[in-house]
Design a protein that fits this description.
By secondary structure, the protein is an alpha/beta fold. About 30% of the residues lie in helices and about 20% in strands. The radius of gyration is 26 Å and the shape is globular. The structure holds beta-D-glucopyranose.
Length: about 750
């Protein structure tokens, strides 16, 4: 139960109706300027134009502040809001805490590779606790855009290509951030973003328009968002780009029809940064006043720092174009959330507590555990891994081997300085007696720098290496490798090569990395490749010639330890890919859940889709190896037939047939054989990660019913479950072969 204090009154607030009553009382005392203020999120930094934050807050002109990460300043600004503004409504402090605040966890794509919802849930709970102790109330996460085009840089921020896995990871993150009650002072508000379709930009080019049929929207893009609404997510963020020619931040269909009317969402929607004003640049709004009007009409509650609302809404009301009631409708959920959070009774952060919270050793243990569970073993020929700890001379080579920035990865918290255990440091810690040498080889950098590079002072701002310096670094790396008994190559992409404004046409290893890998492999020593990257890479040559490959993604603060734990066998890898790995950038978008077509592979009329290289993935969705082996058998469906609306149970035995303990992810796929619309040849509809001792067998059960067997049909123009027959497969990846049929009857 919250108690609130304002103007000498104290009110107990616990039920929905009490919250609503409190909100009405507040609205009754607020001026129009203050109401509009609640819809305005001010940017506390130089790159967000607009009047000084303090001045806006003092007159009640701000509901929220972003891009500030300073505990003392939070309290200073809050004091102005609470003590000086007319109605004393506290501010919400917002910041992107995407995969950790101080303790950095694996990037979301990596967390999805764990196929274990406990990983994102526990990680985001720690992130929430640290961020909240710093004074942050609200994070702009999780990003739950389904992404099937690996060229799109923001694929790193999501859970990959699949709506079922994506929904599970989205819900787990919401639980981690928010807990079971937004009044919990150790948690933060979550924000499901970017609503909707952002992952489908033309050509994978960030911000470019998105064209999606209703079938794709309903069956692929929207399910994770709907799942977060069910899970009680407090806020949504509208996307930047045009969805079917209407900017997402001015999109009534998305925000009014789908989100509120169909799903019953009761929280509020914030725009992406500057997105309301951007509707002018995008060629949608006539001017900023028109942009503000379009945002309100579309149901967008909060304007993230474009100030189009703050500047124009009062005039739109005065001119009779908008009513006060329309403004109040959008203010209500913002006030309700502030009330429910207990912000009125606890507006300030305890400045003395932060250091203690950040120093908790268990946070780093959770980060190491999360990183261990997120890595995917792509290849292990001849059992090269795990390595022995009695190695004498090991060379660790590559531009990312000792890069804290690449280890912590994309989307650092504003103002955070990377402080990770690198792969080099992790290996050195495991081999105190050995000689562990290191050479970075030539540097890698983007051909075209991003705007964010100027914001984030880092290595990337150094002048580029000259060709001669790069050549010297190349030769030094080869010589370092030559002197060793075993080489660990750490290659991939720097943090700013994936993320926002970080799309690329090619998925090859950037720079001279593959050339260096070949030169080192030519030395004839055992080579292990560790990848640090935020998107699938087309590592075709390595896949063929390098015996052991570990996909470590961007594993976070404890990443180097986690890599070493796996390389030396203290931890048996069990992660699985949440995205297909294309052989070429030009094969994107590439995903497993495609439709069959009239000329499927294996048919008499089969036509290769390209004649210059088949677009089959290098590594399929759901794939990942272990130091042990597993066998799936005894697939059973509880009944061969079921009626529409009933449920069946699918069970399978999974055995550890190898020598060491390990973890396998049992994955269930379905295919509707015929019906109103063509359906994908496989769709994930269940998964479970299980631990097995050598020789142990466990039975895994899944449940199938309307939720799993229904789909949004173009022909029926709605959700349907049909009488038809389904293929069911269960196995360790999306190529699973163990099969059963399931018939659905009237
Ligand atoms: C990004 C959002 C982010 C926002 C605030 C935008 O550029 O698209 O994902 O939450 O900035 O930092």
């Amino acid at each position: 139960m919250n108690t609130m204090k304002r103007s000498g009154t104290e009110t107990a607030v616990s039920t929905e109706s009490e919250v609503a009553a409190r909100v009405e009382t507040l609205l009754g005392q607020m001026s129009l300027v203050e109401k509009i203020g609640q819809l305005n999120q001010v940017g506390g930094v130089a790159f967000a134009p607009g009047p000084k934050a303090e001045d806006q807050i003092r007159v009640g002109g701000a509901g929220s502040v972003l891009w500030v990460n300073d505990t003392k300043r939070f309290n200073e600004l809050q004091k102005i809001a609470v003590e000086e503004s007319p109605s004393g409504i506290p501010l919400l402090f917002a910041l992107d805490v995407i995969h950790g605040y101080r303790t950095i966890f694996p990037v979301p794509l990596a967390m999805a590779s764990s196929w274990d919802p406990a990983v994102p849930e526990k990680s985001q709970a720690v992130a929430a606790q640290e961020a909240r102790a710093a004074g942050i109330h609200w994070t702009f996460a999780p990003m739950i855009d389904i992404a099937r085009d690996a060229r799109w840089g923001r694929i790193v921020e999501g859970a990959g290509e699949d709506p079922y896995l994506g929904s599970a990871m989205a819900v787990a993150q919401v639980r981690g951030f928010q807990g079971s009650d937004i009044a919990d002072p150790e948690r933060v508000l979550a924000c499901a973003k970017h609503f909707a379709g952002y992952g489908y930009s033309d050509g994978g080019r960030d911000y470019d328009p998105v064209y999606l049929s209703e079938t794709q929207l309903r069956n692929i893009v929207l399910p994770p968002f709907a799942a977060t609404v069910k899970a009680g997510v407090a806020t949504f963020m509208s996307a930047y780009m045009d969805l079917n020619d209407v900017p997402a931040s001015g999109n009534r269909f998305l925000m009014r029809q789908v989100l509120r009317e169909e799903w019953g969402f009761e929280g509020f929607v914030v725009s992406d940064a500057f997105a309301v004003g951007n509707m002018l640049i995008q060629g949608h709004a006539r001017d900023r006043r028109d942009a503000a009007l379009r945002g309100i009409k579309a149901g967008l509650n909060m304007d993230m720092s474009s100030y189009a609302y703050a500047e124009n809404l009062a005039e739109l009301v005065a001119d009779g174009v908008l009513s006060v009631a329309e403004i109040e409708e959008l203010v209500r959920p913002i006030l309700a959330i502030k009330v429910k959070m207990g912000l009125f009774e606890r507006p300030y952060v305890d400045e003395n507590r932060l250091a203690e919270v950040l120093a908790q050793p268990e946070n780093r243990q959770t980060a190491r555990w999360a990183a261990q569970r997120s890595m995917v073993l792509l290849k292990n020929e001849g059992g090269l891994l795990p390595l022995k700890t009695n190695l004498q001379k090991v060379a660790v080579i590559g531009p990312l081997a000792d890069s804290m920035e690449a280890t912590e990865g994309s989307w650092m918290v504003f103002g955070h300085t990377p402080a990770a255990v690198t792969v080099l440091a992790g290996i050195r810690a495991k081999l105190p007696q050995a000689e562990v040498s290191y050479a970075p080889g030539p540097e890698i950098r983007r051909d075209i720098p991003s705007w964010f590079e100027s914001l984030m002072a880092g290595e990337t701002l150094k002048p580029p290496q000259t060709a001669a310096e790069a050549e010297a670094a190349f030769q030094a790396a080869v010589e370092t490798a030559r002197a060793a008994d075993l080489v660990v190559m750490v290659l991939g992409e720097t943090a700013l090569m994936a993320g926002e404004a970080a799309s690329r046409a090619s998925l090859d290893l950037p720079g001279r990395q593959e050339e260096l890998l070949k030169a080192v492999a030519d030395l004839g020593k055992p080579v292990v490749l560790v990848l640090l990257n935020g998107r699938p890479l087309s590592i075709n040559w390595a896949a063929e010639h390098i015996p052991a490959i570990l996909e470590a993604w961007e594993p976070g603060t404890e990443g180097g330890h986690a890599v070493a734990d796996i390389l030396f066998g203290e931890v048996n890898p069990g992660g699985k890919l949440p995205v297909s790995f294309p052989r070429k950038g030009s094969h994107a978008p590439l995903y497993y859940a495609r439709n069959l077509t009239h000329s499927p592979e294996g048919s008499q009329m089969y036509n290769p889709r390209y004649w210059d290289g088949l677009p089959v993935p290098l590594y399929p969705f759901g794939f990942g190896l272990s130091y042990t082996t597993f066998k799936f058998s005894n697939l059973k469906v509880s009944a061969p037939q079921m009626k529409v609306g009933e449920r069946v149970t699918v069970s399978v035995d999974v055995a550890n047939t190898g020598e060491v303990a390990g973890e396998e992810v049992a994955q269930l796929y379905i295919h509707q054989k015929w019906g109103s619309d063509s359906r994908p040849l496989r769709e994930l509809k269940g998964f479970e990660r299980i631990a097995l001792q050598p020789g142990e067998t466990k039975t895994v059960t899944f449940s199938l019913g309307s939720d799993e067997l229904s789909y949004w049909s173009t022909n029926a123009n709605g959700w349907i479950q049909e009488t038809t027959t389904f293929d069911i497969w269960v196995g360790g990846d999306s190529l699973a072969t163990l099969h059963a049929d399931l018939e659905v009857v009237e």
